[in-house]
Design a protein that fits this description.
With 508 residues, this protein is of the alpha/beta class. The chain has 19 helices and 23 strands. Strands 10-15-14-13-11-12 form a 6-stranded mixed β-sheet, with helices on both faces. Strands 18-23-22-21-19-20 form a 6-stranded mixed β-sheet, with helices on both faces.
Length: 508
């Protein structure tokens, strides 16, 4: 049958907020209540009688509440098929009454983990009875309506009022989908908790709510963001973020994170840096970053790793940009930057802490660890007769950080604290280098004494040859080519310094 009148409801929830109007509506329609513990007390305080689950099962709540509803008198009332004569006969034989509505939520497992609960507390928040009730009711949605979380309270109240206590199959099937969304997410969270130490090779990813975007990468594509954006950022100004905005924000905050302990500003365009600099102040860092590519910075995404003050804001305000991310803004800086209503301003509340990355392709998904490796002075192996100077070491490490976050093949040219130019996403490393040299010269930089970083080794000496011709003095690269010695020999003959890191930083 399609339309079913609700006559009996099992209600047992952890969260009571929003439940009261549902109780009143069910009572108005003459529905009998079955409940347990705190929910039973809640309903009784509203003035309605309740059948305790213990009366159905003839068992009290036992084992510290671990077993309350796991009984045929409860699950039989949910699961027996009303259209099958044998099921109806057995329900009558064992005095099992039908349950037409199940409103049950789950113990706050994720919240307990997030709040640093002890392992014992976390284990006790693994729901057994509740999740079983939800699954049972959802399985038998042909006869039973299930409400699996407080997220559906307003919707079920609307259904009850509009249909005067009756439900249609289309309603019950929709709520069953909600139910399996809740249970699958819950099980994924539990698995992820245990798998932090066990490292079972399995991929469980679950987000229960998404943010619908204006469109995807292009206007003809749909886009949805699944994640907790508000956990990371406060949006202080501007329009709704787009798919491409989010991609660039991700690139910007990952890159600027590399420069902890210094004032840094990065300018991102299509996920690649067109400007990066460190300086004693945010204002100076911005001006140096902007200098690297005054053309590409137009419409870019900016990120700072220190508070943006009014001095910095006055300079940044001269630029048309899409987004500015910073850990904070002074009051006067914020007021100035908010003068343009569509400009997006984000205050970053916490650093990114992801451990893995996912990428869909073919008919599956790739997973890898996040590349949190940052090359340090301790990683550097001098392979040439001429060592880099201390100043060159700083510049090389600076360039290496940018190189790590730039699309392969890439070459980065820099001085200490300033990106001069980069060649990005090229099919050959030589093309990347030539692109970077041409760009640096276009914006008026003298490359004499600059340094070069490469995201992978040089299979031939051609890159160091071209770099030397442009005036570059020191090179940082992973090393590992069977022809490393050819590049080393050229550097030795021409007085260049080169260091190997032993770490490749491809980014595709």
């Amino acid at each position: 049958m399609s339309a079913i009148k609700i006559k009996r409801a099992l209600i047992s929830v952890f969260y009571k907020e929003g439940l009261e109007p549902i109780i009143h509506e069910l009572a108005r329609q003459g529905v009998e209540f079955v409940s347990t513990g705190g929910t039973q007390e809640f309903i009784e305080k509203l003035g309605y009688s309740v059948v305790p689950v213990e009366r159905l099962t003839s068992y009290p709540s036992i084992f510290g509440g671990r077993v309350k509803t796991l009984h045929p008198a409860v699950f039989g009332g949910i699961l027996f098929r009303r259209e099958l004569a044998d099921d109806v006969h057995q329900a009558q034989q064992y005095n099992i009454g039908a349950i037409d509505l199940v409103i049950v939520d789950l113990y706050p497992f994720e919240e307990t983990v997030a709040n640093g609960g002890s392992e014992a507390d976390v284990i006790e928040k693994i729901d057994i009875g509740g999740i079983s009730l939800i699954r049972a009711a959802a399985k038998n949605h042909s006869d039973v309506l299930v409400v699996p979380s407080r997220q559906q309270y307003s919707e079920v109240l609307r259904v009850l009022r509009q249909k005067n206590g009756e439900t249609e199959l289309i309603d019950r099937k929709r709520f069953a989908a909600y139910a399996f969304n809740v249970t699958s997410h819950y099980d994924s969270a539990i698995f992820q908790y245990f798998n932090r130490t066990e490292n079972v090779e399995a991929l469980k990813v679950s987000y229960t709510q998404g943010r619908t975007l204006r469109y995807g990468e292009n206007p003809h594509q749909k886009g949805v963001f699944f994640g907790d954006f508000e956990k990371l950022f406060d949006q202080l100004n501007g329009k709704e973020l787009s798919y491409n905005n989010l991609v660039d924000v991700d690139a910007a905050v990952h890159l600027v994170k590399e420069f902890e302990g210094e004032n840094a500003v990065v300018i991102i365009k299509h996920t690649n840096a067109c400007g990066v600099a460190t300086a004693p102040s945010v204002k100076e860092a911005y001006l140096k970053a902007f200098q690297a590519d005054t053309l590409s910075a137009f419409g870019g995404v900016l990120a700072a790793n220190a508070t943006v003050d009014v001095a910095a804001a006055e300079e940044i305000n001269k630029l048309f940009f899409e987004i500015l991310v910073a850990p904070d803004f002074t009051t006067d800086a914020l007021a100035l930057l908010q003068s343009k209503k569509s400009r997006i301003l984000l205050r970053q509340k916490q650093a990114l802490q992801a451990t893995h990355q996912l990428k869909s392709l073919l008919n599956g998904v790739l997973q890898q660890q996040v590349d949190w490796k940052t090359d340090t002075a301790a990683d550097l192996k001098q392979v040439t007769q001429s060592p880099p100077t201390p100043q060159e070491v700083e510049a090389l490490l600076f360039a290496s950080k940018i190189c790590k976050h730039t699309k392969s093949n890439t070459i980065v040219l820099a001085t200490n604290g300033q990106l001069l130019a980069s060649g990005v996403g090229q099919t050959s490393r030589v093309d990347a280098l030539r692109q970077a040299i041409e760009k640096a010269r276009h914006f008026g930089f003298d490359l004499k004494g600059a340094v070069m970083a490469s995201d992978a080794f040089f299979p031939f000496p051609d890159c160091v040859e071209i770099a030397h011709g442009a005036g570059i003095r020191a090179v940082i690269q992973p090393g590992g080519s069977v022809k490393d010695q050819d590049s080393i020999d050229f550097c030795n003959v021409n007085g260049m310094a080169m260091v190997f890191t032993g770490f490749r930083h491809f980014k595709h």
